[in-house]
Amino acid sequence: MGEITWRDVNVVWARPSDLHGFTESDAAAMGQGQIDRFRELTGSRAQGFLAGRALIRELVRGLHGSDEVRLSSRCARCGADHGQPRSAGVSLSVSHAEDLVVVAATAGSTLLGVDVEQATADGRLDGLGPLFPDGSAPDLAAWTRIEAAVKADGRGFEIEPSEVLLQPRSDGVEPRVWSAVLPGRLEPLEVTTLIGPPGYVLSVAVG
Question: What would you measure as the largest C-alpha separation in the chain, in angstroms?
């Protein structure tokens, strides 16, 4: 397990295969929607879901100072329980890559998105070309910044990835920050790539 903080955002990660002690009953305690979601999954996806909820529970407990953690994952578009997890007074985002789950959390109602990719995800990059018809497909770090930004925005890939404009800031602040300009949004989001788990590329967006 590892963790890093950027501004007021806490980011933690773990390999689902290394986490133990968080069970189906723990997910059920977070709300019926969580257990319904879990029961739709099998194998490594189910294990990854439980690991993500275990990380969420510890982060929310730390931010709330309370043992009880209730979540909602209701999708704003269709009403199913597959949306970004939410908890009162906390903003959350989750990302999975192979045998790794990453959770970002911050107190308050903040737009928040996290994305992680394996550093060796060459096949992932090969598939990006059709999404960027002008030939400007990003490298892996820039791709994680785009994914984090559209997750923070809330529309996900209803937004065409090629329409997300990343503008590097030159204020000398480390880690480097980009302004992410998204269609239909007046204010840009801020996104950065952090030094996260070895062998992975990790970006976080806030707004």
Answer: 50
